[in-house]
Amino acid sequence: xxxSVLLLTSIYDFSADLVALRLKQATVxxxxxxxxxxxxxxxxxxxTGPHVRIDFAGTQFDIDSSLRSIWFRQPVFxxxxxxxxxxxxxxxxxSQWMAFLRAFMIFDKVKWMNWPQSxxxxxxxxxxxxxxxxxxxEVPKTIVGNDxxxxxxxxxxxxxxxxxxxxxxxxxGKECLFTYTTQTTSDALSHNTVSSAPFMVQDYVDKKADCRxxxxxxNIFSVRILSDGSPIAGDWRLERKESLQFEDFxxxxxxxxxxxxxxxxxxxxxxxxxxxxxxxxxxxxEVNPTGEWGWLCDSKRQIDIVIAKWLSNAPHxxxxx
Length: 321
Fold this sequence. Notes:
Helix content: 10-25%
CATH architecture of the largest domain: 2-Layer Sandwich
CATH class of the largest domain: Alpha Beta
Number of domains: 3
Low-confidence stretches: 317-321
Strand order of the largest sheet: 16-15-14-17-18
Number of strands: 18
Distance between the termini: 28 Å
Strand content: 25-35%
CATH topology of the largest domain: D-amino Acid Aminotransferase, Chain A, domain 1
Structural class: alpha+beta
C-alpha cells in the first residue's frame, strides 16, 4: 500500500487514536508508526529517493513522492527519567530510532504538522515569550535562571509563580513525579533551593479564567476552563476531572490575529496556546506545538475531523524550505 498520510506517534496517544479513526472512516490510506513498536518493524529508507519501505506484522507500505502529509507527534526529547538505568542496548536503540524519526525530514516536499525543526524551536519557553510579545500578545514579566538574589530583587514586591523550563517527569523508586505551576514567595527562593537547576519565575497574574486556544491551519477553537462553573485559582490540572467545564468563547479580533501570527512566525500548522483571561484582557502563558486536545473534542469541537482533513487534503509542498 502507498499511504498518503504518515503518523509518527506513541501507542499511548489518545489524540492520534482519534485522528487515525477519522482517516480510516474517510478511507484515506495512512500508516501509523509508534515509537514503542519501531524495533518490531522492518524499515528500509532510501534518502535520495526519497523512499521508505515498511513491513509491520506482515503488511507492507511504500512511502514515496505520493505522500501528502506527515503528522509529527513525537519530538525526540527523552523527558522521562527511567526508574532503573537503561542497558547499553536500550540506550543504543532509543538514540538511533529517535534519529531515524528525524530522518523522515527527507520528505521535505510534503506538508508537516509540524516540521520537526519548527517543533523543537517552538518548545523553547523563553523563545515563545519573545515571539508572543513581538506578535502583540501581552506576556508576564519573566526571569529564567538559578540566581536566588536576582529572583528576590525582581519579584520582592509582587506575587509570582515558578515553573519548569521543560516538562518534568521523574521516577523515584516506584513513584512517578510531575511538576505543576506553583505560586510562592520570594523568601522561599534561596541559594539552596534554586541553584542546582534553572527555572522560570513569572509575575502572578490575577485571572478571570484559564483559556486554551487550539489552532489547526486556518481553524481556531477557543475555550475557557472552569471548575463547577467558576474560574480556577491555581493550576487547573490539579482539579477533579468531573468538576471541569470547557466553555466556548470568541477571542477579540486583535488577540485572535496575534495568536495566528504567533503560529505563522513559528512555522507551525498546529498549536495549543495557553492564555489567561484577566479584567484587562488576555495574557500569553505558553504554546505547545504537539499539545493535547483530545479532552476538548465533542460534537461542537471536532478537532479530530479538522486535523484529519488537513492531513488528507494537504497539497504537495513544492517550494524549497
